[in-house]
Write a structure and sequence with these properties.
Helix content: 40-55%
Low-confidence stretches: none
Number of helices: 15
Structural class: alpha+beta
Strand content: 15-25%
Distance between the termini: 51 Å
Largest sheet: 6 strands, mixed
Order of helices and strands: EEEHHEEHHHHHEHEEHHEEHHHHHE
Shape: globular
Mean pLDDT: 96
Length: about 400
């Protein structure tokens, strides 16, 4: 149970506060509601580029990392399709350093030709190293546009091409900053051993003066429903062939999401899961298997598959995988099997609430979903999933017209 208080500043910044009496550390977490889906199709990778640019220094803090280190803190960030997250952990007495740094780069980020050039090179190198020169690295570069015809989930967070970053101009980058990095497009959480009024006062003193430069969020195109099965074949210099079955599914905030997530854990949640027992340990068709949901704000993906064993026909492995998925549409899940998965989810949730930073991050995430109270209600929602709901959802999800089969073949 995470106790919290919520307040919205006059400039639109949502503030969440959590008092944690069990630690001498404190944390700030700030989410900007901008991700890969907010980019121009001809200028992708900007949200990820800004994850780097936000550490390049601001008007009053030319070096972002140095004040954090001087305050005995740690900081980092990540970007995905839907949002960008920045977090700082410091000793309790140094929390104002974190708030100062976040407020300064929200309003006075130093975007100049030199810093942009440096970060462009960093991102392009990351693109080459992780996506072009790494086994399976180009998988989602090729699969996403095959799965999405109009929605911006059709490209990965890194972007479509290094050229989109290479050709980014100072004006384009500044426009992106002005559009998305401002109070009404942000959520901040503060966690530590402070009185709630004190936390709100600290945030107000650092962020309350910032004038919101908000602009209207663009309306994203709706991806049409898939009407027939698809198949994509890729060949590459990889150590083993890989097979995926990918299905379109509901958005993260949909009531059916917890059922889909539970279904993925039933299929691949450890060595006692269905896919591992049947496809790895039993038939030895795969050396590894996995099933997971992407959890996107807009309708996302359910992915199942793995690496095919040497000498095994990938088509045979894929057929066996599909048999296991379709079995979920017909066979009633046992109470013991379901309860084991639900227990694991509850345990993971509890462990994820031990760290002061995790609490701040969770509060921001659920606020972004539109209902911060979910931070304390999701365990009960997972507990309420029934075998009948699993079967019904599997039938809808694993429909023949909703599957895309990927064969990533070893040359």
């Amino acid at each position: 149970m995470i106790e919290y208080r919520r307040k919205v500043l006059s400039n639109g910044l949502v503030v969440l506060a959590h008092r944690d009496r069990a630690t001498s550390m404190a944390a700030t977490n700030i989410i900007y509601k901008v991700g890969a889906r907010d980019e121009d199709p001809d200028h992708t990778g900007f949200a990820h580029l800004f994850e780097h640019l936000m550490f390049s220094g601001s008007r009053n803090a030319p070096s972002f990392d140095m004040p954090v280190q001087m305050a005995s803190g740690e900081n980092n960030a990540f970007t995905n399709n839907d949002y960008t997250d920045f977090y700082i952990t410091v000793p309790k007495d140094n929390i104002d350093t974190a708030l100062w740094l976040e407020s300064d780069r929200m309003t006075d980020l130093d975007i100049n030709a030199s810093s942009l050039d440096v970060q462009k090179k960093v991102v392009i190198e990351e693109f080459n190293e992780r996506y072009l020169n790494k086994p399976y690295g180009d998988l989602w570069l090729k699969l996403r546009p095959f799965l999405y015809s109009v929605h911006p989930y059709g490209w990965p967070t890194i972007g479509k091409s290094p050229d989109h970053i290479r050709n980014a101009t100072l004006g384009m980058v500044r426009d992106f900053y002005d559009r998305y990095y401002h109070p009404s497009n942000a959520i901040i959480a503060v966690a530590g051993d402070y009185d709630y009024d004190e936390m709100f006062d600290m945030v107000e003193s650092r962020f309350g003066h910032i004038t919101d430069r908000g602009s209207e969020k663009k309306v994203l195109p709706v991806e049409p429903a898939q009407t027939e099965s698809r198949e994509l074949v890729i060949e590459g210099d990889v150590p083993a062939s890989l097979v995926y079955a990918v299905f379109h599914m509901c958005p993260r905030a949909d009531d059916r999401f917890v059922v889909c997530d539970t279904l993925s854990d039933l299929l691949s949640g450890g060595t006692s899961s269905r896919l591992y027992r049947s496809l790895v340990k039993g038939e030895a068709l795969f050396t590894s298997v996995n099933a997971y949901v992407t959890g996107d704000l807009d309708p996302g993906l359910f992915v199942a598959g793995g690496h095919v064993s040497d000498g095994v026909d990938p088509k045979k492995a894929c057929d066996a995988l599909m048999r296991q998925l379709r079995a979920m549409c017909e066979e009633r899940v046992g109470e013991y099997e379901l309860t084991k998965v639900q227990n694991k989810f509850e345990a993971n949730t509890l462990f994820g609430e031990v760290n002061v930073m995790d609490k701040a991050m969770n509060l921001c995430f659920y606020e972004m979903l539109g209902d911060v109270s979910l931070v304390n209600r999701e365990v009960s929602l997972y507990r309420s999933v029934t075998p009948e709901a699993i079967t019904e959802t599997a039938r809808e999800l694993f429909a023949d017209n909703n599957v895309t089969l990927l064969y990533y073949l070893k040359k």
